[in-house]
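Re: the request from the purification team.
They wanted to know what the chain is likely to look like in 3D before they choose a buffer screen. I agreed to run a prediction and write the result into the notebook, where they can find it.
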Amino acid sequence: MKAFSLFIVELNEGTTNAALSADFAELLRTVQTTGRAGSLTLKVKVAPATRSNSGSVDKVTITADRKLELPKPEQASDFFWLTEDGETSRNHPRQQELQLRDVSTATPPPTFKEA
């Protein structure tokens, strides 16, 4: 029996092997840059092309389907509170708000001299 690797090289005059090699190289680069997992799937479909009068199959069609799933970069998340109405809010809806003011431009307090 012929090795599967030799069959892949022959399939579609080598274009399937070239495409799988390119997909695999892209997968490796992307895993390296993202630090996340991905996958490359090869599905080979074999179907009878013709049948003889006795019902035996002596010719088949073979189709290769490649599926490349590249890892996605980690998505940033954000934090929100939910109000009673289900709306998002940056502030806790049940916490009082503290009124702050900028004191950087205010006149400094007087200094006291010791007697």
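For the purification team: The chain has a mean pLDDT of 89.
Please add any questions underneath this entry.
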